[in-house]
């Protein structure tokens, strides 16, 4: 080997060795549109000092996005906060794609690089509290600015997070299809809510196969339905709303007892499954999984009435208004009592940061309606504090515009319904809920597909597992 | 001590080897030891880990709601995919070994699925499989049959995924093709002289000469397919009713979505032992049907 060559080989191998070690180093976090989710505060304040006379503290906030425009929208709100320059706090946004979000958060937790504050998935929130990672936020708000009690995620009696917005489940319908079938619109106030049977009979009249025949007609072809009368969402957190209305549910409101195995829950689940299996008025979940967004589903006449969250108004329904969609909103049908569920993604503050108090100041500002009013007016969010539901002028400020359905209808079907008839999804308070959901989701698949009865699936497959999870988390 | 020339040579050799050794050490050996260590703890990344002895391993077999079904569907998928793709690839490679026009182009076409990013092909397949608007159901429906649920049916999901796996086995075809071209002409001519026909040539020369390659392909694709992950992640999320909850996806879910790193490590090790045992078994039985010219 010539000397020259030997030297080159040596240099090359040393360079390689160095790169192996470089790979082990703490490189900046991938997947975020802004650099580094690393521990905030001190390190980055250095670059800020040159601009501001007083020392600035940086608060990091991590949020997920579902589409490319979202990070820019969120950034606008953050920019507004930074422009107001409150207490010399600057906020920095870390945007992460929704699909990678939980993985990313978990990885950051294990490497001790959690941001100061973050959006959290609803079903995981209490688990993080159980693991002692969330700061107690009971002192974040004064009494009159506090979000609704129904929006507090609580662990051991203390709020550990508040939802960034309020959402309830509703019944949307295509007015044209109901007019054509001569069916009155679903009631817009809880005291007049349809019973389940009224709902099913309306759905029957709305369902049409490719020859224009309905489920009652001779020669009706259930395999080629072109318009389904109803679509009821069977997500594991959504369908129990009807079980609650029937006197069942997943668990009691204090989380002390399971209700999943009760006959009332089983009856409600079976009736939902029967909508597609027996009555032929609704698509099976596998069919609806292939449907486009709700606005297009309603506009194209695939479905006449569909359950969905309040957010659909701003996320989907408004997109088809220009194409002639005439939709209305009503309350959900009831079994015994008129009930809806409320939810909303929580914003959390991690107790691992050095910036807990500043993070609280930021989050409090960030969740005040005045600061994110554009999201509320666009129909995606509903406000979080009580006065926005009680004061008529404030109500009109967010709900009386061309995106929302007519104010009179929206007020009783959504605002009052949310205030008077909403129950919390158990992920607000039940430790182990995420594990229960993990069993419940696949466990109910055979029920919706019709290969098992609700009784068989819930009693024999689901309950033994859920009971174990429940007692393990007590 | 005097540094002799051979010392010098040794030092240079070790220095040159150092990237490989360090890479192996830091990227393979230490992580494996780490996995073994973590599997005996309840480490979640969120709280301080505690040593839980064999609890994780016991829980896999006694407490886990998903493990058995997951193991079952993984083995179902792996055997289905391996056997079907070996037969398919063998058949195609024989076809591609004939004197056909534009042979080179056709050969590359069969290899293309293997080199396209898997996630991209999976998305395209999901469109084909779509229940309502998918191309397959369009054809099935226009022929007068009932639509299939494909990825959304409990019974159809694994066969549907096997079809994707078989379609993308361009590498097996290439290896088989190389093997077929190496079958000595002399033996084939010998059969001809003895009055044998094409079937005899195939059955008594080509196949026996190919057994080492079939064995290699079988083993490698068995190991690969047991570790199937992408379709579960990209297409089914393990559903419906956990019918495609493959073990690696279960490990991923436990580790990175539920933060049970200790438990996830334990499942990976159990899985590793299973794959190792299966590989050993395949090696053992291979004596019975492997034919080496040199022996």
UniProtKB/TrEMBL annotation, chain A:
A Pfam cross-reference name: SBP_bac_1
Composition skew (Low complexity), residue ranges: 26-47
Protein name in UniProt: ABC-type sugar transport system, periplasmic component
Superkingdom of the organism of origin: Bacteria
Species the sequence originates in: Ruminiclostridium cellobioparum subsp. termitidis CT1112
Signal peptide from the UniProt entry: 1-22
Annotated segments matching region Disordered: 26-51
SUPFAM superfamilies for the chain: Periplasmic binding protein-like II (SSF53850)
Keywords: Signal, Sugar transport, Transport
UniProtKB/TrEMBL annotation, chain B:
Cellular component terms (Gene Ontology): plasma membrane
Gene Ontology terms describing biological process: transmembrane transport
Main location: membrane
Coiled-coil region list: none
TM spans (from-to): 12-40, 75-96, 108-128, 157-180, 261-283
Membrane topology: Multi-pass membrane protein
Alphabetically ordered keywords of this record: Cell membrane, Membrane, Transmembrane, Transmembrane helix, Transport
InterPro entries documented for this protein: ABC_transporter_permease (IPR051393), MetI-like (IPR000515), MetI-like_sf (IPR035906)
ABC transmembrane type-1 domain sequence ranges: 71-282
Cellular localisation: Cell membrane
Family membership: Belongs to the binding-protein-dependent transport system permease family.
Cross-referenced PANTHER family: ABC TRANSPORTER PERMEASE PROTEIN (PTHR30193), INNER MEMBRANE ABC TRANSPORTER PERMEASE PROTEIN YCJO (PTHR30193:SF37)
Protein's recorded name: ABC transporter, permease protein
Native source species: Ruminiclostridium cellobioparum subsp. termitidis CT1112
């Amino acid at each position: 080997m010539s000397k020259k060559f030997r030297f080159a080989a040596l240099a090359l191998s040393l360079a390689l060795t160095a790169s192996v070690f470089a790979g082990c180093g703490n490189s900046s976090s991938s997947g975020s549109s802004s650099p580094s989710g690393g521990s905030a505060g001190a390190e980055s304040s250095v670059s800020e000092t040159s601009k501001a006379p007083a020392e600035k503290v940086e608060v990091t906030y991590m949020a997920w996005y579902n589409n490319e425009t979202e990070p820019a929208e969120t950034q606008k709100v953050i920019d507004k906060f930074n422009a107001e320059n409150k207490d010399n706090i600057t906020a920095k946004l870390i945007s992460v794609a929704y699909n990678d979000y939980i993985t990313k958060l978990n990885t950051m937790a294990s490497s001790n690089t959690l941001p100061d504050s973050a959006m959290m998935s609803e079903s995981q929130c209490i688990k993080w509290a159980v693991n002692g990672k969330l700061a107690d936020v009971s002192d974040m708000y004064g009494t009159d600015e506090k979000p609704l009690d129904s929006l507090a995620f609580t662990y051991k009696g203390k709020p550990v997070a508040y939802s960034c917005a309020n959402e309830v489940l509703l019944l949307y319908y295509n007015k044209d299809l109901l007019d054509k079938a001569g069916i009155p619109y679903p009631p817009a106030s809880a005291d007049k809510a349809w019973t389940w049977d009224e709902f099913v009979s309306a759905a029957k009249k709305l369902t049409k196969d490719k020859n224009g025949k309905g489920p009652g007609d001779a020669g009706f072809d259930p395999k080629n339905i072109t318009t389904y009368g109803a679509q009821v969402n069977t997500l594991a957190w959504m369908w129990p709303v009807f079980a609650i209305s029937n006197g069942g549910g997943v668990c009691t409101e204090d989380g002390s007892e399971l209700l999943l195995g009760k006959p009332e829950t089983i009856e409600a689940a079976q009736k939902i499954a029967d909508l597609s299996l027996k009555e032929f008025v609704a698509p099976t979940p596998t069919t609806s999984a292939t449907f486009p967004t709700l606005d297009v589903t309603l506009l194209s006449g695939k479905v006449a009435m569909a359950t969905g969250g309040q957010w659909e108004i701003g996320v989907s329904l408004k997109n088809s208004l220009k194409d002639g969609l005439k939709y209305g909103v009503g309350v959900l049908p009831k079994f015994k009592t008129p009930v809806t569920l409320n939810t909303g993604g929580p914003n959390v503050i991690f107790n691992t940061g050095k910036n807990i108090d500043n993070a609280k100041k930021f989050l409090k500002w960030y969740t005040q309606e005045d600061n994110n009013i554009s999201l509320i007016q666009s129909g995606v969010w509903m406000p979080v504090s009580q006065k926005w539901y009680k004061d008529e002028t404030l109500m009109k400020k967010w709900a009386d515009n061309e995106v929302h359905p007519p104010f009179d209808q929206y007020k009783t079907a959504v605002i009052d319904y949310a205030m008077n008839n909403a129950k919390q999804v158990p992920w607000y308070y039940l430790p182990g809920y995420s594990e229960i959901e993990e069993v419940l989701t696949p466990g109910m698949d055979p029920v919706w597909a019709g290969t098992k009865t609700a009784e068989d699936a819930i009693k024999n497959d689901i309950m033994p597992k859920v009971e174990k999870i429940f007692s393990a988390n007590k | 001590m005097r540094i002799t020339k051979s010392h010098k040579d040794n030092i240079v050799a070790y220095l040159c080897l150092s990237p490989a050794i360090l890479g192996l050490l830091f990227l393979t050996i230490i992580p494996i030891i780490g996995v073994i260590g973590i599997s005996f703890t309840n480490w979640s990344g969120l709280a301080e880990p505690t040593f839980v002895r064999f609890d994780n391993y016991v829980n896999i077999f006694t407490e886990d709601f998903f493990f058995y079904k997951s193991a079952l569907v993984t083995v179902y998928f792996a055997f289905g995919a391996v056997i079907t793709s070996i037969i398919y690839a063998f058949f195609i490679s024989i076809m591609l070994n004939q004197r056909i026009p534009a042979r080179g182009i056709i050969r590359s076409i069969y290899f293309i699925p293997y080199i396209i990013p898997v996630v991209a092909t999976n998305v395209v397949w999901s469109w084909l499989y779509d229940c309502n608007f998918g191309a397959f159901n369009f054809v099935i429906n226009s022929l007068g049959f009932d639509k299939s649920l494909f990825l959304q049916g409990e019974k159809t999901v694994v066969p549907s995924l096997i079809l994707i796996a078989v379609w993308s086995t361009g590498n097996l075809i290439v290896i088989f093709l190389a093997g077929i071209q190496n079958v000595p002409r002399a033996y084939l001519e010998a059969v001809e002289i003895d009055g044998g026909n094409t079937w005899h040539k195939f059955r008594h020369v080509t196949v026996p000469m190919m057994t080492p390659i079939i064995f290699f392909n079988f083993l490698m694709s068995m190991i690969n397919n047991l570790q199937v992950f992408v379709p579960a992640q990209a297409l089914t999320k393990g559903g419906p009713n956990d019918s495609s909850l493959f073990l690696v996806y279960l490990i991923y879910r436990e580790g990175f979505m539920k933060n049970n790193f200790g438990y996830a490590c334990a499942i990976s090790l159990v899985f590793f032992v299973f794959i190792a045992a299966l590989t050993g078994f395949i090696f053992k039985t291979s004596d019975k049907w492997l034919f080496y010219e040199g022996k």
